[in-house]
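From the thread on structure requests for the teaching lab: each student submitted one protein with a one-line request. Submission from student K.M.:

"Model Battenin from Scophthalmus maximus, tokens only."
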Amino acid sequence: METGSVNADPVQRPDANGRCSQWRNWTGFWLLGLCNNFAYVVMLSAAHDILKKQESGNATASTSTTLAVDFQAGNSSNSSRYDCNPVSTAAVLLADILPTLVIKLSAPFVIHKLPYGFRVLFCVIMATTSFLLVSFSSAVWISILGVIFASFSAGLGELSFLSLTVFFTRDVLGGWGSGTGGAGVAGAFLYSGLTQVGLSPQITLLIMLVIPVAMVISYFFLLVPPASLPQWKSRGAEYAAVGSEESQGLMDGSQEDEQEKSTPVTDMITGPLTFIEKLHVIKGLLKFVFPLGLVYFAEYFINQGLMELLYFPDFFLSHAEQYRWYQTLYQVGVLVSRSSLCCVKIRKLWALSWLQVLNAVLLLFAVRFQFLPSAWLVFVIVLYEGLLGGAAYVNTFYFISKESEDRHREFAMAAASVGDSLGIALAGLAAFPVHRYFCSL
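Reply posted by the TA:
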């Protein structure tokens, strides 16, 4: 009897501890996703307000106020039937996405030399710097520099945290995806709410410094990292040391648990990937990167090239209010679908891509021929657009994690993150001539 009670504790405790660790890791990645994209979202809103305050006949500042988060309704300086701004919101989109694209194209080949702890601290420093620069800026170029810092932070953070998921069970990808989706909704609502109650943009930005602090807490105190995680030492320095220790750990775990692990360390300790191996991995990733890039191309072509032009003069909302609600409902769709991984998984990524392209074509013709009867129908379409985009993102990285070889998985997760940024950048370029054409009518 006594022996039975002694044996019961060791069986129950690991199970309880395991569930606790699983919830901590899921929550930690949710917060990391929120914090990583939150600064980027808020920076767009803050840069708009501060640049607008700074402008005094300055053409550069005037251009910068065409940020995607807002624009002036009823621009009297243009005679276009679309009531559009002289410069497309794609201008700011390119300024925001190009630094991220540069990071994602280059960093996967060298970032493995920098341990994760230092990467997180670097992202935190850049995000903090971006808030401070935009808050205290006295010139337009300083505010723009702050936005660039936010873009670098978001890009490096995304590829680093996606790579980080391979050291945990695969379900943390759902937490990361849901957190990034929540950043768009939470960032827009929180910034708008604080400024609406009377706080200045500068004070609001200083309050937002809590976000980098939350990232530090999430990574260093909430996550339960495995021994294999190269937090303060580079991968090469840990291959030999980790090998014997982790091999013994794998022998102690159940077969079912280890199949769920994203990265069995025994396969990773054979050495770093060579440049040729990385090129081979990238070739295998094209079946994921192309559909993801196409989804985001169509998505941001709608958001930055067409959404501003979908204006209904007889609707009860003003032009600016219609645009804000388009953006808000889009973000809600993204949040819902990026949180859906625990309920449904979609392997047919190309289907999501072509459905999004169909959305873009439909709305392009709607802008040209103005056959949609009401903004209510556009609300439904942009909500659906967000659902497609969020589903494509989270399912792409889930299946990359599931189908990549163990030794390739960490690099694959980082390298594939370029797909969405490349699609966004191309969409920004394509939106310029389209916007110019319609505004000239």
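TA comment: The two ends are 88 Å apart (CA to CA). The chain has one domain: 19-54+63-439.
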